[in-house]
UniProtKB/TrEMBL annotation:
PROSITE patterns: THIOREDOXIN_1 (PS00194), THIOREDOXIN_2 (PS51352). Its main location: endoplasmic reticulum. It is found in: Endoplasmic reticulum membrane; Mitochondrion membrane; Secreted. This is Thioredoxin-related transmembrane protein 1. GO terms for cellular component: endoplasmic reticulum membrane; extracellular region; mitochondrial membrane. Keywords: Disulfide bond, Electron transport, Endoplasmic reticulum, Isomerase, Lipoprotein, Membrane, Mitochondrion, Palmitate, Phosphoprotein, Redox-active center, Secreted, Signal, Transmembrane, Transmembrane helix, Transport. It comes from Dracunculus medinensis. The chain crosses the membrane at residues 170-195. It holds the Pfam family Thioredoxin. Interacts with ATP2A2. InterPro entries: Thioredoxin-like_sf, Thioredoxin_CS, Thioredoxin_domain, TMX_domain-containing. GO terms for molecular function: disulfide oxidoreductase activity; protein disulfide isomerase activity.
Length: 221
């Protein structure tokens, strides 16, 4: 009796937390799919307790996506750090409603029925969309996304040098500080050259030459 009961328990738990077949996983390459149609997208991380608590409700909500004529998606920010920067994700889980490229952050209750009513009753229309300068597809947010990806790359390299190679942490920090300084100097040099090329400095006439010329004119008079 104990074995069947244990099996039923684990099957039940697994069914609660298994991903829905209608749940779309977005990444750095596919996130622009959000710009077409209506979506609800969740940003989460595997280590986040609140994200784990939301998982069952989010998977159940995804099962209703076809009936609601929307798409339900999720983004793992540990795998896609650039997207966490692009969407300015400062807390987990973060949920957005998207309609034809217009983004609104969801701030309601995190339950399947609340998600459904948010779509059916068009409660999202009562919220202001995010401003243009925060739009994920704007040039400035693209730059932010690249900085997030770069920071994650540097962190991974630092962990590799310290944990795998055995370099002291201070040496790793010094190495990256030196590289940053060198790149900053090179970049600054090129910026100065470009500015000088685009806006060349005007040649100032020699003041002494002017004075001598005026003196000669006075003598002639």
């Amino acid at each position: 009796m104990l074995l069947p009961a244990t099996l039923i328990f684990f099957i039940t738990i697994n069914s609660c937390f298994a991903s829905s077949k209608n749940l779309i996983k977005l990444n750095e390459e596919s996130w622009q799919d959000l710009l077409k149609g209506e979506w609800m997208v969740e940003f989460h991380a595997p280590w986040c307790p609140a994200c784990k608590d939301l998982q069952k409700a989010w998977n159940s909500f995804a099962e209703w996506s076809k009936d609601l004529n929307i798409k339900v998606a999720e983004v793992d920010v540990t795998i896609n750090p650039g997207l966490s920067g692009r969407f300015l994700v400062t807390a987990l889980p973060t949920i957005y409603h998207v309609k034809d490229g217009v983004f609104r952050q969801y701030t309601g209750a995190r339950d399947k029925n609340d998600f459904i009513s948010h779509i059916e009753e068009k409660k999202w229309s009562l919220q202001d969309p995010i401003p243009n300068y925060k739009h994920p597809n704007s040039p400035q947010m693209t730059v932010v996304a690249w900085f997030f990806k770069l920071s994650m790359y540097v962190r991974d390299k630092h962990n590799y040098l310290v944990e795998d190679v055995g370099i002291p942490a201070w040496a790793s920090y010094s190495l990256f500080a030196g590289i940053t300084l060198a790149l900053g100097c090179v970049l600054g040099f090129f910026i100065v050259c470009i500015i000088d090329r685009v806006f060349p400095t005007a040649v100032q006439p020699d003041k002494k030459v002017k004075k001598d010329f005026k003196g000669k004119e006075k003598k002639k008079k």
